[in-house]
């Protein structure tokens, strides 16, 4: 749709077609209606439809220069008299919003008498030639606006997508989990073997098994004691009974 702004100086084609159901202001003869249009300082009057009665036909065209901010035309229908003043039949307002938006309007507009009662209607065809030009211009303008944002909106995703793939690349290093296999193999096995012989002599004392072997043979004679005391107890027992009982053996020295 064309906008209703920027119409200053452009032209509007208006054709007064006919009137329908006009209020009759004549008692004896048929009335002779005519139509007057007024838009700012522009005024237009149709010819008088002699004996037009209630349904006069005009089919007259005029061109009205548009003014920015004025969106309606005043219409009045009169009955022409030869002797007295013309009789006012009815008047109304013709709205320009539709014709300025769509470029064409053939509506009928209601008329009201001075007392506000229905006084008939007038059919007018209006044509705004520049409406299509404005529609095309605005269509192109709106088309460029939508196309530009999608281009900008697509560009960021493309730039973000490559970073997303490198981010997934780090997960690939899990293939380097063999490094974990390397950690356990050299760490526990090689370090203890290398340390004792080279740097720490204390490791020589670390193998205490040889030390307990030296204790029994050299320092503690009980090493020989264990084998002897176990068999001697049966031999010592026969010697002890004769000793403690002197009453039995003292007779031998006599």
Automatic annotation (TrEMBL):
One Pfam family recorded for the sequence: C2
Domain C2: 1-110
SMART domains hit by this protein: C2
InterPro entries in the record: C2_dom, C2_domain_sf, Ingression_C2_domain
Region Disordered: start-end pairs: 135-167, 198-254
Superkingdom to which the source organism belongs: Eukaryota
Biased composition (Pro residues): 206-254
Name of the protein in its database record: C2 domain-containing protein
Source species: Dioscorea zingiberensis
